[in-house]
Design a protein that fits this description.
The structure is a homodimer.
Chain A lengths: L1 E9 L6 H12 L5 E14 L5 H15 L5 E9 L2
Antiparallel strand pairs in A: 1-2, 1-3
Chain lengths: ~80, ~80
Amino acid sequence: MARVVVDVMLKPEILDPQGRAVQGALGRLGFTGVTDVRQGKQFVIEVEGEITDERREQLHVIAGELLCNPVIEDFILIVEEDQ
Amino acid sequence: MARVVVDVMLKPEILDPQGRAVQGALGRLGFTGVTDVRQGKQFVIEVEGEITDERREQLHVIAGELLCNPVIEDFILIVEEDQ
């Protein structure tokens, strides 16, 4: 068993109105000193068997096409092999 | 400067239709062996200054009220202090 975590985040140059709303709300709730908030998506994928280099490459391609919009989003893929 | 990452995920007992849709799509794209997919939200909060225990506690309370719906969601809060 392995767990693959894909974090999808808007590219830094793309405005993030949801993050901006959270930033405003944090200030109103009394938490000061926040300089930026970005909101993204996280996918946690449980996979049977080992993640070979080939499967990792396959996941990378799929994540870039299925899980994120490469025009406006970046993603990070982390593989956590189970002990 | 510190970075606070809040990962919000549906509780395990709550159905996740978006995750289920991704799981189906992964299979159709030829990536087999996926046993479960969960989709969540991720907030990346950039904060000035140090995160003291008091501020961390304050963030915990706010995250539980503002960033997640505690009826159906769990959250994890990770503080990454800048070197």
